[in-house]
Amino acid sequence: MKREVIVVGAGPAGGTAAYYLAKAGVDVLLVDKETWPRDKPCGDGLRGPSWPLFREMGVMDDIMKYGTPSMGTLLVSATEKSIGLRSKPHGVISCPRKIVDHLVVQAAIKAGAEFLQNFEALDLVVRRGVVRGVRAVFEGQIIEVESDLVIVADGAHSRLAHQIGFYNEDPDLVFYGARGYFEGIREMTDMIEFFYFDMFAPSGYTWIFPMSKTKGNVGVFITEGALQRSGMVLNDLFDWWRDNTKFGNIRLGEARLLGEIKGWRLPATWAVRENFSHGVMVAGDAGNMIEAAFGGGQDLAMLAGQAAAETAIEALKQKDYSAEALGPYKQKLLERQTPIYNGYNAARKFLFTNTPDLDRFIDRFAEEAASRDLGFDEALGRFLRG
């Protein structure tokens, strides 16, 4: 049976694309290789650009019910200088991706999308240079499902993005992350916390996203090159932080790990890239849509999913699925994603590449931040202007 659109991958990008397509009355099939709801290793931080989409899907109340709003950002340098930058009403909502992604998929299903799980897409069906569907393993059989368009959103190890050449392997922009949930964390603030070390540079850090007064999502974020230079594996970095730094000892000295530490790959980029061809668009981690300062990609993925859906709806109306017809996808990404990339690119280049830059930033704004609600964006903008 032929479908109008197949969306491969039910994470933030795919789930969002399926929601907006179904809402517009498009025959959309959303597929994922996992059994849902599934866990997704992540910092679990939901930034502001995704909130309007959650509200439109009708899931924001549930996210607030299960999530923990933070009141700002704490930055700690390798010299253990620190600054707390407040946000109004809050900067990030910490909510497990197992919950968030499931809510988005359920919103897509409610809007009319069909969802098949345990559906492993093997490759794209390409005829005369045009993507015409997917070949997959489903219920123990290899099948082909035809479609007018395919939206590839199958994550950081996307075999489909590799197939069509839309994959970035720049070693300076490939990060690795690891996350564990810990109970018994001491002296946590009401902010999301980032701890920077020269060993992790450029831009790497350990983090804590609070889930209660004593429980948090704790993780590490490091480039592939920095990890190799450290001589450690991801799990070792938790113990290193606890045993070799003041803040690490305070936070994790008496904490216990709940479950296990899970790691994943984070292919980042500096800017919007070419992510479409004849009959196909690529969104989310599969299209390297992760910013290179904090490693955030969930909001960028949702914006891409929305943009891909809008582009697909117009292409379906015109019955034109050529690369030229899908060209507006890039323009929509430029409009929605570029402000996010630009802000975080500046943060990486001028704050997080080395300790002296971050220390100068902290020295300049620490007193002001303590006396009023000074936000990160305002402080960074003033710092860059001199």
Report what the structure shows.
With 386 residues, this protein is α/β, with parallel strands linked by helices. It has two domains: 3-67 and 95-169 and 269-347, FAD/NAD(P)-binding domain (3-Layer(bba) Sandwich); 73-88 and 171-268 and 353-385, D-Amino Acid Oxidase, Chain A, domain 2. It is 37% helix and 28% strand. Strands 1, 2, 8, 9, 10, 11, 17 and 18 form an eight-stranded mixed sheet that branches. Strands 6-5-13-14-15-12-16 form a seven-stranded mixed sheet. A hairpin with a 2-residue loop joins β10 and β11 (141-152). α1 (12-23) runs parallel beside α4 and α7 (234-244) crosses α8. It is globular and about 60 Å long. The mean pLDDT is 95.
Tally of structural domains: 2
Top-tier CATH class of the largest domain: Alpha Beta
Mean pLDDT: 95
Count of DSSP-assigned helices: 12
Distance between the termini: 61 Å
Q: Specify the structural class.
A: alpha/beta
SSE string, helices as H and strands as E: EHEEHHEEEEHEEEEHEEEEHHHEEEHHHH
CATH architecture of the largest domain: 3-Layer(bba) Sandwich
Helix content, binned percent: 25-40%
- Cα-atom Rg, whole angstroms? 21 Å
- Poorly predicted ranges (pLDDT <50, ≥5 residues)? none
Shape: globular
Number of DSSP strand runs? 18
User: Can you say what the CATH homologous superfamily of the largest domain is?
Assistant: FAD/NAD(P)-binding domain
What is the beta-strand fraction? 25-35%
Looking at CATH, which topology of the largest domain would you report? FAD/NAD(P)-binding domain
Largest sheet: 8 strands, mixed
